[in-house]
Amino acid sequence: MQKNYLLTPGPTPLPPYVRQALSKEIIHHRTPQFQAILKDVEDNLKYIFQTKNDVFIFASSGTGAMEAAVANTISANDKVIVIEGGKFGQRWTELNKVFGADIELVQVEWGKAVEPEKIKEILDKDKSIKAVFATQCETSTGVVTDIQALAKIIKDTNAILIVDAISSLGAIDLKTDEWSVDMVVSGSQKGLMLPPGLGFISVSAKAYKLIETCKNPRYYFDLRLAKKALDKNDTPFTPAITTIVALNEVLKNMCSETLEVIFARNKKLADAVRQTMIALGLELFTTLQDTSDAVTAVKVPQGVDGVKLVKTMRDECNVAIAGGQAHLKGKIFRIAHMGFIREDDLKVGIKTLEEVLSRMGYKFEKDIGLKTIEKFLN
Ligand SMILES: *Cc1c(COP(=O)(O)O)cnc(C)c1O
């Protein structure tokens, strides 16, 4: 059997202990056994989210948790700011439109990070703004947003800060309580090394006030129901039992490894990948300052078919990287370095990238990619 290398920014590879947990016999959820698991999961999630706030778990993809964030806080005609610098920022805009929000759209060129001052200017002028929506790691471009700076600006205003951390939670630093981030949204299939299917959301006291006054109809994603259940260490509906059992194992591992160690590893891998791209004569899609340690986006060089590059690596070499989305299709490729992606996976990834680029006519010093990544990963 040929090994497949999954270097995409979600889903990410599953560690063997996760696959083992997923293959266990299922248990019933209204039992002391499952309650004990849920309790451990809740405690450890707080560590990963860096918060004392409640963290809710939905049986949904990450977007479900994004919808829960909007559905529970933003009523029709409420004013919001959406920071949109990529495919996932756009999702915040689309969700807010669906719920009838009055959107102040802050469009940022794809590949660039927002200037927090811009948000301050808008908030200074308009005290009625209810929420600011941001994306910590804009997975479509590889840009990281300065959430700490945004939170500092928003903290003492009437608005709450809602952050999409679907690809960044457990991958790069997000100090929810220390920075004052009101709602953090995430999913299971990126930094958390699980299959897709769990959506998460943390809720601050300031955000709870909005939830209470919000006029939207809600049912499955009603955080008031979820809160009632959580207070009894329970869930309102059948939880994704098997995935939560596996989550429990992931969290135990992450807690014992510590966030510091995980973030440092991802940074080391990210630096190595970026230096390797530069050595190959390729151009990064973002500046080194704005680049996320969860995923690196690289411009496809002139003369190379970007779609074919990704397809050939996947179908002929068993190495999956991601292409570009929307107008970036064929123009960039993206390599993840988070979760269970490790040194050896990236070395294989780089070696394969070199082979395929070379086959497609791109010129560079032979083996410079592999040599560079090996140098940086030692
Ligand atoms: C993957 C991703 C999403 C979408 O999550 P789904 O689980 O596919 O719903 C949203 N935002 C960001 C930043 C992502 O990386």
Strand content: 15-25%
Distance between the termini: 29 Å
Total number of distinct structural domains:
2
Would you identify the CATH H-level superfamily of the largest domain?
Type I PLP-dependent aspartate aminotransferase-like (Major domain)
Question: With helices defined by DSSP (H or I, 4 residues minimum), what is the helix count?
Answer: 14
Low-confidence stretches: none
Summing up helix and strand content along with how strands pair, one would put the structural category as alpha/beta
Alpha-carbon Rg, integer: 21 Å
What share of residues is helical? 40-55%
CATH topology (fold) name of the largest domain: Aspartate Aminotransferase, domain 2
CATH class descriptor name of the largest domain: Alpha Beta
Average of pLDDT: 98
Cofactors, ions and other ligands in the entry = pyridoxal-5'-phosphate
Q: Biggest sheet: strands, sense, closure?
A: 7 strands, mixed
Number of β-strand runs: 14
Order of helices and strands: EHHEHEHEHEEEHEHEEHHHHEHEEEHH
CATH architecture of the largest domain: 3-Layer(aba) Sandwich
Q: Taking strands numbered 1, 2, ... along the chain, how are they ordered across the largest sheet?
A: 2-10-9-8-5-3-4
Q: Globular, elongated, flat, extended or rod-shaped: what is the shape?
A: globular
Q: How would you sum up this structure, described in words?
A:
This protein is an alpha/beta fold. It has two domains: 5-11 and 259-377, Aspartate Aminotransferase, domain 1 (Alpha-Beta Complex), CATH 3.90.1150; 16-257, 3-Layer(aba) Sandwich (Aspartate Aminotransferase, domain 2). The chain is built from 14 helices and 14 strands. A hairpin with an 8-residue loop joins β13 and β14. It starts with a strand and ends with a helix. The model has no long low-confidence stretch (mean pLDDT 98). The structure holds pyridoxal-5'-phosphate (PLP). The site of pyridoxal-5'-phosphate (PLP) has 13 residues, from α3.
